[in-house]
Amino acid sequence: MNGIWLDFERPIVELEKKIGELKGLKGVDEEIKRLKAQAEKLKKSIYSNLTRWQRVQLARHPRRPYPLDIIELITEDFVELHGDRRFADDYAIVSGICKIEQHRLAIVGHQKGRDTKEKIKRNFGMPHPEGYRKALRVMKLAAKFGLPVVTMVDTPGAYPGVGAEERGQAEAIATNLFECSTLPTPILVIILGEGGSGGALAIAIGDRILIMENATYSVITPEGCASILWRDATRNKEAAEALRITAQDMQQMQIVDGIIPEPVGGAHMDYETTARNIKSAIMKNMDELVAVPISELIDARIQKFRAMGVYKS
């Protein structure tokens, strides 16, 4: 498990450790077989009964695949595009042009970073205004050349620093919401890990919204919610339940159009299978979206977001 595991994964880790210790010994084949079956049964039991907070933990798992991991596995001829042509290049947003089988398209996503150096470089996946402006620049470029857009969302939220606010963080996000609502090209959104607040929504306006099985999508993090409601960030588990932020919740509330399955144990357990599932979802949805006239796509996109939410007077 890559040396990193969560609390609820520890029973599985202990079993796998025992299996590892027995390998190479003589006369223990039956015991290994029994322990493997027990481990598989335990995995299915644990991961089919996860709490909302446990899914938050999986969405944040440090070994969870990020957009560049998926891009490497499913695309051809990826050319990364940099800069917003106004201020700087924001490494919290990755963007570029690529090919997935017969589809040429643009990809935009949040990138968090693995080690300390890369996390700092990518600002933990929290974009500045220039990141959102870069994303919009690439999406407009895609529309100009008739390329569909795929966005991969994985951020705790937009960066709330003074510099970001001075450079127009709110305006950059609002502009993306406005422009993407009528962008004349198909847009497919995939919530890959954390879908946090306006920082996620800025690249999550699309014709189809898909979410990974253990991803989350919310107006605020559980810790942020707990801090505001109860002045106590340690009540994050309670906040996660109240927020209803899991993929299953999103599908029930009709916020998303579909759930992309993950391997047993989460996406971090098997990059190859995760990438295949994402590629399959992209191909299926793109085949359908590119067949729809652009004017109809835009009308349906606008109505899609207008219809979200239930209001009682």
Automatic annotation (TrEMBL):
Alphabetically ordered keywords of this record? ATP-binding, Cytoplasm, Fatty acid biosynthesis, Fatty acid metabolism, Lipid biosynthesis, Lipid metabolism, Nucleotide-binding, Transferase
| GO cellular component assignments | acetyl-CoA carboxylase complex
Q: What is its EC number?
A: 2.1.3.15
Q: Which reaction does it catalyse?
A: N(6)-carboxybiotinyl-L-lysyl-[protein] + acetyl-CoA = N(6)-biotinyl-L-lysyl-[protein] + malonyl-CoA
Which SUPFAM superfamilies did the record assign? ClpP/crotonase (SSF52096)
Which Pfam family, any one, appears in the UniProt record? ACCA
Q: State whether keyword Cell membrane applies.
A: no
Q: Which GO terms describe its molecular function?
A: acetyl-CoA carboxylase activity; ATP binding; carboxyl- or carbamoyltransferase activity
Query: What's the superkingdom here?
Result: Bacteria
**Root EC class:** transferase
For this protein, the record's InterPro entries field holds:
Acetyl_CoA_COase_a_su, ClpP/crotonase-like_dom_sf, COA_CT_C
Tell me, which GO biological process terms does this entry list? fatty acid biosynthetic process; malonyl-CoA biosynthetic process
Span of domain CoA carboxyltransferase C-terminal = 31-288
Query: Pathway, per UniProt?
Result: Lipid metabolism; malonyl-CoA biosynthesis; malonyl-CoA from acetyl-CoA: step 1/1
Stated family? Belongs to the AccA family.
UniProt protein name:
Acetyl-coenzyme A carboxylase carboxyl transferase subunit alpha
